[in-house]
Amino acid sequence: MERFICEVIGIDLGTTNTVVSYYDEVARDGACCPDFEGTNLTPSAVFFERSQEDEDGWSHVVGKVAKEIAILHPDRTATRFKRLMGRTTEAITLENRTFSPQELSAFMLERAVENAESALDRKIRNVVITVPAYFGDLQRKATLEAGKLAGLNVIDILDEPIAALVHCTTLSDLTDKVVLVIDLGGGTLDLIAARVTQDCIQELEIDGDIGLGGSDWDDALTKYVRETFLSGRSLRVDDEQQLCLDVEFAKKVLSNEKKNNARFVVRSMDGPVEVRITREEFDRCTRFLRDKTETVIRRVKDNLEKKGIEKIDKIILVGGATRMLQIRELIREIWPDLEDPDIIRRNVDEAVACGAASYARMKAAEIARKEIEAGKAGTGDPFIILEDEERWQKFKETIQHEEIEKVRSVVRPVQRISSRSYGLGVTVEDAGGSTQKIYNLIFRGEPLPAEKLGTRFGLSEDNMKRVALRVYENFSDEHYLEQDETLLIGECVLPISQQLPKGAVIEVSFRLQEDGTLYVYGTEPTGNTRIEMTLHSRALLGNEEVEF
Amino acid sequence: MEKKDKTIYRTEAEGAVTVVGIDLGTTNTLISLYDETTGRASCIENSTGSCLTPSVIRFDEKKSENGTEYYYVVGKEARESADIYPDRTAMLFKRQMGRTRDFKKIYGTSYSPQMLSAMVLKSVLRDAEEELGAPVTHAVVTVPADFDDAGRKATLEAARAAGLEERNVDIIDEPAASLFDCERLLNLEGKTVLVFDLGGGTLDLMAAEITEDSINEAANRGDVHLGGSDWDYALGCHILNTYLKGKEFNTEDRQKFWLSVEQLKRNLSSLKEADMYVHTKAGEEKIHITREEFENVTQHLLKRVKSVLEDLMTDLYEKGIGSVDEVLLVGGAARMPQIRTLLAEFFPYSRMGSGDADRAVANGAAIYGWIKYNGQKPGSRNTDKLYEVRKMFTPRVLNRISSRSYGLAALIGDDGEEKIYHFILKGDGVPVSVTKELYTAYSNQRIVNIRIYETTLFERYVDPDEKWLLGTCTLSIDKDLPEHSPILIRFTIREDGRLQVEAKEKKGGNRIQVELESRALLNEEAVEREKRRLDKLVML
Fold it and tell me: For position B59, which CATH number holds?
């Protein structure tokens, strides 16, 4: 029996690292494919060099090399572009060309797929990509776009902490437990509380901070080293680069319980400087980051208590930055009685990708079963996931066999209770007609898929020719909130075909998909014209660049 | 519905053996554990979050009222401070395994390559034991296929000095180990595979035919003095001669220079051109190198690779094997585009596969170890899940061949010309035991001097050359025998490639097991002494 059958892989497209995994049928869990450069983690960094074939063109290099020369060529290296996803179309501008975060992410996805193809000896087209639970609609859409640019068929987008939880359910029996996943990666903090039942994973609470991650600890420590050891000294550019790498290494050393200090030598123009950092110093200069983390964790705890959930059975730590002792201490401080959060123990950086692979396998089986029920399998119609007839037969046998029950018991469907962390609304005029407000149709924390159908709004004037539907994302739990243009994610125009009096009713519906994609429908009173909106925004690419 | 509780490693079982695979490399060392529940082996991360522990040791001293205490640090920290403390840092000692007993003197004490290797082993074993929460009882350590007898024995001595029991340690050739890992995902059954392993210090080639239940080694070739670090050296020399003529360095800058060269080489595997910064006494310089330039100045190394490849193909032809189906690239230096291009020219019709270039060897060793120490005992673990894994995972038997010819000096023919008479030829299957009858040269001969040689030649008789001498011993005869009395001599190569020689006078008489005297190896007592010495040193 082969280990890899389903032909769908999981990709953790991270802020600092990208990881790719497949579902191992023998072991019944996700396993990583190594990168060309030798680890399972490919640094999410893209470096551009002048193409040799085309004078105006650029060729790109991703991964470790790009990360390591980032400081030598800051103008030609893009890093941490995940933080820009869905927020801008310009992540890096070279002399004659601009690259969007989607394009840069697509380069990372291409590399991930190459790694998988090389390890699995098979062509890969279908993927599940993970995103922070905190990602909003635009960011999720941008992620989908990246997948399309890389020529991939993205069968689903999965939240990172959920992926980690799925991975943990393949390692240990968590049935009937309330689990809190704390995912502190290189760039984002992502928390999810969920109850694992026999048949599914129910999300209970979601929170996070999209701008807090391990790289912030690196920055804080670098700043401290500069102020304490290097004030008044100047560094050459390559020594600057070395300093950044050394600081990251020092952080890792100090994450080892047995080490109380880390040492390295910085070369400055005025001679070498020996730097010695104790754990106490490290904790002190990064205290504000620990506090930021604590705020988010306590908020989740409070919100759970409000929902009547007083006890958490298990805490799962995911993401490289949870190796830091201060994070482990913080958790012991908040939950002194809890057993060690050690299900994953090692490879905390790989759990998300492995979980995504397990989820992908389940999704593929689900699609396959539907195909079989629809009778397509017998008619020679190629299955959408497995184009190759022989492999499709093999997969069919696997999932028809009792094996599938075991897989299902390990990898459970995810019931998304609240994976929508933003509220979504449209602008309306308040009763007095003087000010515009945002009116929320879908609230933060509603289960998915969510629908709000046929909400009725009155026209504000006589004989309106069109109504602009402006859609906003927000964090509020209120029905009405102040208009804020920075929250605008898109707008569309509903044309009105005949003259209508003020107060005539139009209907607006929101439908939010499980992958976080939002569809907006508008109907005018006569029912003659309807619109269906795909969100337009400055942050999304034009259709000419991506074929949907 | 089945409930499942997967612990990562099963150590709770009664009398459990915990097997690790260790890739004790010239530049980096890795340790791997086989996980029964998944049927996969995976490398253990060290405290810096990497699987690769640089095979570099730095010694520190700490003076206090109670005298001076000595410490040592293994791995990345030692590697990165090598430019600051070159005099008390030891690296690249694998190249001297089995060649010398004194590698470097630090703080007035001389260290053997075995002892230094033992320190690296201790460091990775500690990582594994922390992970397991239990002591490691068994280990498989890898060696280059081209390692000679002394290199293999020295490796075992290192394992013993690191605290492992001799009977619980096995060695396996690096390319063979990587096959055990790669076949997990690649379907290699029925194929002829060439493993191309170019590491930091050695080039190791092995061709094998893989059947349903065995891996049959067909040929091996290598060069224990050709590795990625030679490319570093060639590139560095080129830069010094071309761009930095007449420039002077201080010691620290010179060390830093070589580290930057290594980085530059790695960058040029991905980039078509790259920069490096050099600090000389005259100030800072930026040096720009293109991949083409790099490939030009390392042509001679590529030629050496090519010639080893050609030799291997000749060996294969002689065995009636005309082509390979799959080329597996292993080792960090196999990433260089010039290597890939060369292999594509050599094997235009073969599939080029790369497993996990850095970790395949350690993982494969862990799998091999598990088969060896656990896998042959069905029922020792009574779980259905394990059975399922075993069903999927075919424990293949590894059939090795010898990488050297072994023989002794004898007077051949009527004119009594002295020749090396090979008992075992390079390419013979191992384990193997060959017994030959030789005769005394004159009557009443009381002492027979046995001179044992190890060569890389294929002929049965070759002219002796002292560079091949492995060791000597004497068989004493306590009674008078006529001229041409038969003496029996047996050469045995064990599964792990180690040589054993026994001699015996045919008609009863005393029997001796030959203890090879070697300049580089340690005796039983010395190994124990090294072990005690090592236990006293504190590893940070």
Answer: 3.30.420.40
